[in-house]
Amino acid sequence: MTVNQILSTKGKEVYSILSTNTVYEALTVMSEKNIGAILIIEDGILKGVLSERDYARKIVLKAKSSKKALVHEIMETDVVTVKPSDNLDYCMELMSTKRVRHLPVLENNTVIGIISISDVVKAIIEIQKDTIQHLNSYITQ
Protein backbone atom coordinates (compact mmCIF):
# COMPACT_ATOMS: atom_id res chain seq x y z
CA MET A 1 0.00 0.00 0.00
CA THR A 2 1.19 3.51 -0.80
CA VAL A 3 0.78 6.94 0.76
CA ASN A 4 -1.53 7.87 -2.11
CA GLN A 5 -3.84 4.97 -1.23
CA ILE A 6 -4.04 6.19 2.37
CA LEU A 7 -4.84 9.71 1.18
CA SER A 8 -7.54 8.41 -1.16
CA THR A 9 -9.29 6.87 1.84
CA LYS A 10 -8.49 9.52 4.45
CA GLY A 11 -8.76 12.58 2.26
CA LYS A 12 -6.24 15.22 1.32
CA GLU A 13 -7.43 18.05 3.54
CA VAL A 14 -4.51 19.97 5.05
CA TYR A 15 -4.70 22.56 7.79
CA SER A 16 -2.00 25.19 7.97
CA ILE A 17 -1.07 28.44 9.66
CA LEU A 18 1.61 31.09 9.31
CA SER A 19 4.81 31.21 11.32
CA THR A 20 3.76 34.63 12.62
CA ASN A 21 0.64 33.25 14.30
CA THR A 22 0.78 32.80 18.05
CA VAL A 23 1.16 29.30 19.42
CA TYR A 24 -2.23 29.80 21.08
CA GLU A 25 -3.84 30.45 17.68
CA ALA A 26 -2.20 27.30 16.32
CA LEU A 27 -3.46 25.24 19.27
CA THR A 28 -6.95 26.63 18.77
CA VAL A 29 -7.01 25.43 15.15
CA MET A 30 -5.56 22.08 16.17
CA SER A 31 -8.26 21.67 18.81
CA GLU A 32 -11.08 22.71 16.47
CA LYS A 33 -9.89 20.31 13.76
CA ASN A 34 -8.96 17.54 16.23
CA ILE A 35 -5.43 17.19 14.86
CA GLY A 36 -2.13 16.60 16.64
CA ALA A 37 0.04 18.69 14.34
CA ILE A 38 -0.38 21.59 11.98
CA LEU A 39 1.69 22.60 8.98
CA ILE A 40 3.26 26.00 8.52
CA ILE A 41 2.84 26.92 4.87
CA GLU A 42 3.78 30.33 3.49
CA ASP A 43 3.49 31.33 -0.16
CA GLY A 44 2.69 27.71 -0.99
CA ILE A 45 5.94 26.46 0.55
CA LEU A 46 6.15 24.11 3.54
CA LYS A 47 8.17 25.95 6.19
CA GLY A 48 7.62 23.74 9.20
CA VAL A 49 5.34 21.70 11.40
CA LEU A 50 4.06 22.35 14.90
CA SER A 51 2.95 19.41 17.03
CA GLU A 52 1.43 18.98 20.45
CA ARG A 53 4.80 17.59 21.49
CA ASP A 54 6.51 20.85 20.48
CA TYR A 55 4.02 22.78 22.58
CA ALA A 56 4.49 20.56 25.61
CA ARG A 57 8.27 20.63 25.49
CA LYS A 58 8.95 24.17 24.30
CA ILE A 59 6.15 26.16 25.92
CA VAL A 60 4.65 24.33 28.88
CA LEU A 61 7.89 22.90 30.32
CA LYS A 62 9.67 26.24 29.86
CA ALA A 63 6.81 28.19 31.46
CA LYS A 64 6.29 30.35 28.38
CA SER A 65 3.00 31.88 27.32
CA SER A 66 1.31 30.35 24.27
CA LYS A 67 -0.52 33.67 23.76
CA LYS A 68 2.79 35.53 23.43
CA ALA A 69 5.07 32.98 21.75
CA LEU A 70 5.01 32.85 17.97
CA VAL A 71 4.87 29.64 15.98
CA HIS A 72 8.26 30.25 14.33
CA GLU A 73 9.88 30.20 17.78
CA ILE A 74 9.00 26.56 18.43
CA MET A 75 8.07 24.93 15.11
CA GLU A 76 10.15 22.13 13.64
CA THR A 77 11.81 23.39 10.48
CA ASP A 78 13.60 20.18 9.52
CA VAL A 79 10.43 18.54 8.25
CA VAL A 80 10.47 14.89 7.21
CA THR A 81 8.22 14.41 4.16
CA VAL A 82 7.07 11.61 1.88
CA LYS A 83 5.87 11.28 -1.71
CA PRO A 84 2.49 9.84 -2.75
CA SER A 85 4.26 6.82 -4.26
CA ASP A 86 6.12 5.89 -1.05
CA ASN A 87 5.04 2.65 0.61
CA LEU A 88 3.95 2.04 4.20
CA ASP A 89 7.13 0.22 5.22
CA TYR A 90 9.16 3.27 4.25
CA CYS A 91 6.80 5.56 6.18
CA MET A 92 7.02 3.38 9.29
CA GLU A 93 10.80 3.33 9.06
CA LEU A 94 10.93 7.13 8.73
CA MET A 95 8.55 7.67 11.62
CA SER A 96 10.55 5.32 13.79
CA THR A 97 14.05 6.51 12.96
CA LYS A 98 13.19 10.23 12.82
CA ARG A 99 10.84 9.99 15.81
CA VAL A 100 7.97 11.83 14.12
CA ARG A 101 4.26 11.10 14.16
CA HIS A 102 3.20 13.15 11.12
CA LEU A 103 4.48 13.10 7.56
CA PRO A 104 3.48 15.83 5.11
CA VAL A 105 3.01 14.47 1.60
CA LEU A 106 4.72 16.48 -1.13
CA GLU A 107 4.28 16.27 -4.88
CA ASN A 108 6.39 18.67 -6.96
CA ASN A 109 7.29 20.54 -3.75
CA THR A 110 3.61 21.19 -3.01
CA VAL A 111 1.84 19.78 0.04
CA ILE A 112 -1.00 17.53 -1.10
CA GLY A 113 -1.80 15.89 2.22
CA ILE A 114 -0.50 14.65 5.53
CA ILE A 115 -0.47 11.21 7.12
CA SER A 116 -0.09 10.32 10.78
CA ILE A 117 1.19 7.26 12.57
CA SER A 118 -2.45 6.42 13.24
CA ASP A 119 -3.24 6.43 9.51
CA VAL A 120 -0.31 4.10 8.81
CA VAL A 121 -1.21 1.70 11.63
CA LYS A 122 -4.86 1.55 10.49
CA ALA A 123 -3.75 0.76 6.94
CA ILE A 124 -1.39 -1.98 8.14
CA ILE A 125 -4.17 -3.52 10.25
CA GLU A 126 -6.47 -3.58 7.21
CA ILE A 127 -3.76 -5.27 5.14
CA GLN A 128 -3.28 -7.88 7.87
CA LYS A 129 -7.03 -8.51 8.11
CA ASP A 130 -7.14 -9.13 4.36
CA THR A 131 -4.16 -11.48 4.58
CA ILE A 132 -5.76 -13.43 7.43
CA GLN A 133 -9.03 -13.67 5.53
CA HIS A 134 -7.23 -14.98 2.42
CA LEU A 135 -5.30 -17.52 4.48
CA ASN A 136 -8.48 -18.70 6.19
CA SER A 137 -10.17 -19.11 2.81
CA TYR A 138 -7.20 -21.10 1.54
CA ILE A 139 -7.12 -23.37 4.58
CA THR A 140 -10.86 -24.10 4.58
CA GLN A 141 -11.02 -25.00 0.87
Concise overview:
With 141 residues, the protein is an alpha+beta fold.
Furnish the topology, listing elements before pairings.
Blueprint: H1 3-10, E1 16-17, H2 23-33, E2 37-42, E3 45-51, H3 52-60, H4 71-74, H5 88-98, E4 102-107, E5 110-116, H6 117-140
Parallel strand pairs: 1-2
Antiparallel strand pairs: 2-3, 4-5
Helix pairs in contact: 5-6
Organism: Flavobacterium gawalongense
Protein name: CBS domain-containing protein
Domain CBS: 8-66, 75-131
List keywords for this structure.
CBS-domain; three-stranded mixed beta sheet; two-stranded antiparallel sheet; 6 helices; 48% helix; elongated; Diverse_CBS-Domain; CBS domain
Structure, described:
The protein has one domain (3-140): CBS-domain, CATH 3.10.580.10. It is 48% helix and 20% strand. It has six helices and five strands; from the N terminus they run αβαββαααββα. The protein has a three-stranded mixed sheet with strand order 1-2-3. Helix 2 (23-33) links the parallel strand 1 (16-17) and strand 2. This is CBS domain-containing protein. Keywords: CBS domain.
pLDDT averaged over residues: 94
Query: By helix and strand content, what is the structural category?
Result: alpha+beta
Based on CA atoms alone, the radius of gyration comes out at: 18 Å
**Weakly predicted, low-confidence segments:** none
The biggest beta sheet is recorded as: 3 strands, mixed
Total helical segments: 6
Overall domain count = 1
Widest sheet, order of strands: 1-2-3
Beta-strand level of the residues, as a percent range?
A: 15-25%
DSSP E strands, number? 5
CATH topology: CBS-domain
Work out the helicity level.
40-55%
Calculate the terminal CA-CA distance, rounded to whole Å.
Answer: 27 Å
The name of the CATH superfamily reads: CBS-domain
**CATH architectural designation:** Roll
Provide the CATH top-level class.
Answer: Alpha Beta
Order of SSEs, N→C? HEHEEHHHEEH
The outline comes out as elongated
